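Hello Y.,

Per our agreement to keep a running log of every chain we model this quarter, I'm adding this entry. I've kept the format consistent with earlier entries: sequence first, then predicted structure.
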Amino acid sequence: MKSNLHKIIVLEKDPNYNAIYKEYFKNYEEYSLIGIYTSVQEVLDKYDTLKPNIIVSEVDLLKNNGINGIALLKRKDPNVKIIMISKNPSFELIKKAFKNGANGYLTKPLSSKRLRRALHTITAEGAIMSNDIIKQIIHNFRKKSYAFFSSRENQIIDYLCKGATYKDIAEKLFVTHSAVNYHIQNIYEKLNVNSKSEALYKLQQM
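Predicted structure for the entry above:
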């Protein structure tokens, strides 16, 4: 094995994926698959010998949940990069994974191209997320950040952020132009701004 290869471990309880991962890594010149395991404990028991650079772990594992295992693996080696993979893009799971120290979260199914791109990104930048997960996180943070606006105000803010004019908003929401103006003024007051550009800037900062 070349010394400059990134050593990869895969944690996956379903044996049907073993052949797929092995086939993928045959074509990755920069990465070497040094083992596929079904539990976090197996990796911990052999960690001093394996010394992986990156761990690709399914959330649902044998004996121990993959997300709970992140902290154990990070305690063993704070520098190891851990990418979680799952069919379930639950916001709560994603939040818990990153809170426990994960460096990435990808949704299944993983193609050879997606996995390789993820490995490149996490090696160069230290973190990786699927686009669908990024959208979900933004959506959840937006809902939390704008909790002090009414549901109608949130609808208007959403259209404003998309570049809609007041006339467009009135037509899309089936309300009068004056009704939109009324809600806009309430939004400005809550944000303590006097113009659309100021409002958009402040919303972006939030």
